[in-house]
């Protein structure tokens, strides 16, 4: 399925969101290509596998082309050796805030300590409710792209 993905990304101030979440899923993902013009990712999300191609970010990082296809977990494991080093490991929490679904990623391994929330929108100008645990917006900061985190992990940043 191909479409234009519209999402905003925020840092998270604390773990209050966990009590509000209705689901958590472990994710392991790695990148076959981290070129900002076209990233190619394989992901194991729970028991399901995915191959995703993302295009160049537009509108200050808010939107970009995305194509995603479900593949078998065996296919994911077969592709992992072809990926660039440093897979991303995280737990994704799904949290409803009013009518909006936030996906909150708690990173592990080399990105331990980083918690990021994303919200998908139908329009760049769409309003949405912001919970108290939501921190600074980092949508346009490429350091927070998962492809960038795989190359420059959060633990190694000069904070």
Strand order of the largest sheet: 1-5-4-3-2-6-7-8
SS element count, helices:
3
CATH class category = Mainly Beta
Q: What proportion of the residues is helical, as a percent range? A: 10-25%
Low-confidence parts: none
In total, how many domains does the architecture comprise? 1
Description:
This protein is mostly beta strands. The chain has one domain: Hypothetical Protein Pfu-838710-001. It has 3 helices and 9 strands; from the N terminus they run βαββββαββββα. A hairpin with a 2-residue loop joins strand 6 and strand 7. The longest helix is centred in the middle third of the chain and has 7 residues. The chain is globular.
Fold topology:
Elements: E1 2-12, H1 17-20, E2 21-33, E3 38-45, E4 48-55, E5 63-71, H2 73-79, E6 88-97, E7 100-107, E8 115-120, E9 134-137, H3 146-151
Antiparallel strand pairs: 1-5, 1-8, 1-9, 2-3, 2-6, 3-4, 4-5, 6-7, 7-8
């Amino acid at each position: 399925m191909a479409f234009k993905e519209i999402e905003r990304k925020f840092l998270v101030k604390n773990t209050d969101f966990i009590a509000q979440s209705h689901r958590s899923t472990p994710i392991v993902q790695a990148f076959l290509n981290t070129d900002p013009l076209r990233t190619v990712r394989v992901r194991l999300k729970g028991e399901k596998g995915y191959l995703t191609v993302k295009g160049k970010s537009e509108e200050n990082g808010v939107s970009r082309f995305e194509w995603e296809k479900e593949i078998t977990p065996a296919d994911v494991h077969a592709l992992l050796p072809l990926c660039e080093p440093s897979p991303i490991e995280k737990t994704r929490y799904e949290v409803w805030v009013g009518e909006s679904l936030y996906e909150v990623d708690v990173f592990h391994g080399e990105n331990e300590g980083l918690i990021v929330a994303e919200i998908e929108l139908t329009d760049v100008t769409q309003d949405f409710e912001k919970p108290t645990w939501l921190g600074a917006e980092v949508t346009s900061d490429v350091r927070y792209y998962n492809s960038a985190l795989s190359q420059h992990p959060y633990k190694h940043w000069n904070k």
